[in-house]
Specification:
Elements (H helix, E strand, L loop, with lengths): L1 H36 L11 E8 L4 E7 L3 E3 L7 H5 L3 E5 L3 E2 L3 H11 L8 E8 L4 E8 L2 E12 L3 E9 L6 H10 L16 E9 L2
Antiparallel strand pairs: 1-2, 1-10, 2-5, 3-4, 4-6, 6-7, 7-8, 8-9, 9-10
Helix pairs in contact: 3-4
């Protein structure tokens, strides 16, 4: 009788242990599946494009271009586009400026960027404030200031940012004046006045990977 009772206890313990082990294994598998279902989201530098639009003449005629090199990194682990954007750091070599006019590009480097302090690179860190607004701590002309922007995220993959950069905020008046002097005749309007505006429109389109 005692032997049968002992055997019954052993069998019951074995069943309980096996059940518990199976439950732990099942839970571990579920956690693993859940982990795979939320992969890390990162911005894709190769598919990131920054378009700048500067203005000349009193009529404010637009002149647009891009930068051919942009580096983007983010130490934060993100699970959506907003998190991927928030905390991102970018770096742009000014030597990669491109406006489809090599003479203009050379003037922008020599008479604009090279007049500034420590501006071989434009760099900054992005902060997202809500679902449509944020700002960049932009480093230019040896100083860092906030550049507010608006943004839209589409399809959980694509992002578009828009901002208006006022160069005066980065004390770049000397660079604007030097560029206007170098392009004096080209920046004349119908009124005969040569003008280079301190405002620059910025548009960035990017996607995640």
């Amino acid at each position: 009788m005692k032997t049968k009772l002992l055997l019954a206890c052993i069998v019951a313990s074995g069943i309980a242990f096996t059940s518990c082990k199976n439950e732990v294994t099942k839970k571990a598998k579920e956690e693993k599946v859940e982990e795979k279902a939320t992969p890390e989201v990162k911005l894709n530098p190769a598919l990131t494009k920054l378009t700048w639009t500067a203005y000349k003449t009193t009529e404010k005629l637009p002149v647009s271009g891009t930068f051919q090199e942009i580096e983007i990194s983010n130490k934060n682990k993100a699970i959506n586009v907003r998190e991927a954007l928030n905390g991102a750091h970018f770096s742009i070599p000014i030597s990669s400026i491109y406006s489809k006019d090599s003479i203009r590009d050379g003037k922008l480097q020599t008479f604009f960027f090279n007049v500034m302090k420590d501006t071989e690179l434009l760099s900054g860190d992005i902060t997202v404030e809500n679902d449509s607004l944020g700002f960049v701590n932009l480093k230019m002309n040896g100083m860092t200031e906030k550049l507010p922007f608006s943004y839209k995220a589409q399809n959980d993959t694509d992002i578009e940012l828009n901002a208006t950069l006022d160069l005066n905020k980065w004390h770049a008046q000397a660079a604007v004046e030097a560029l206007n002097k170098a392009c004096f005749d080209l920046h004349k309007g119908a009124d005969g006045v040569s003008k280079t505006w301190s405002e620059v429109a910025i548009k960035v389109s990017t996607t995640t990977k």
